[in-house]
Amino acid sequence: MPVLTTTAAPTTELYYQDLGEGAPVVLIHGWPLSHRMWESQINALLDAGHRVIAYDRRGFGSSGQPAGGYDYDTFASDLNDLMTTLDLRGATLAGFSMGGGEVARYIGRYGQERVARAMLLGAVPPFLLQTPDNPDGAPKSLFDGMLAGVRKDRVAFLADFFPNFYNADGGSVHPDVIPFSKALAWPASPIGTQQCIVAFGTTDFREDLKRITVPTLVVHGDADRIVPFEISGKKSHAMIAGSRLEVLTGAPHGFAATHAQELSRLMVDFLKA
After folding, report:
1. Which residues lie across from 134 on neighbouring strands?
2. 174 is catalytic
3. Catalytically annotated residue among 62, 63, 97, 232
4. Which of 4, 110, 137, 183 could form a disulfide with 130, with the two C-beta atoms 3.0–4.6 Å apart?
């Protein structure tokens, strides 16, 4: 099993897949899933002739479950460890949901020397939290409620969370996708699951986005109930000069599954441009 040991404390092991040849694409998964959420996109990118690296964030999937380090500076350090260990150059960083925060913070801290392109897919930047200078953000009580729910009964919280993740009441998702998602989320670190809520709910990526100058694709669903387009993808597109915005009509947050072929086509087309 390919793993690397992180340099940021507390150190842990990161599991990754490294498949194919060609220009590298690094896939960074969302909360509370693992790299396995990318199955359709991995197939499409490999078919298009790309090298695909998909890893599990610390605390999730087959990576280690340390007692701490669930903040974006540490996540960016972990991503940098992956980039340097594999000596990736000319890479595309593609982050879904909270994974978009890793893309932004990595570039903010480590620059673009190894990065050719970026993708923010249903991503949390630029800043989700409501503050005086971000009045249309989500109130802190929303994230406090999520944290309390996970601490009280993580399994019950996930049972309520995933139907909204996929807008299941609209019939847009295969019924087995929700059990599959639960199966990915259940083995995750309870501490990591909790602390990631704090990370994606309170981290300000606005200064990081100002440092992105590589070609960037922003994809978002206009029916996203988890990370609403108006406070995330729309703003990121406005902040990143020359970025390409693709809004998926009727798509929920979990569009990597519900709109898998459409997302894969957008990703492959962007890499060709």
Report:
1. 131
2. no
3. 97
4. 137
Token pair recorded at residue 118: 């970026």
In the predicted model, is pLDDT for residue 159 greater than 80?
Answer: yes
Which residues partner with 219 through β-bridges?
121, 246
- CA angle (63, 67, 70) in 5-degree steps: 70
Mean pLDDT of the chain: 97
Clarify whether 97 is annotated catalytic.
yes
Give the chain's domains with CATH numbers. Answer: 3-272 (3.40.50.1820)
Count of C-beta atoms within a 10 Å radius of residue 29? 26
* Entry pTM: 0.98
Q: Contact at 8 Å (CB) between 17 and 63?
A: no
The residue from 29, 35, 253, 259 that is catalytic is: 253
Sheet with 51-55, edge to edge strand ranges: 3-5, 13-19, 51-55, 24-28, 91-96, 115-121, 216-221, 244-248
Tokens linked to 2: 């390919």
Distance (Å, whole) CA 37 – CA 44: 13
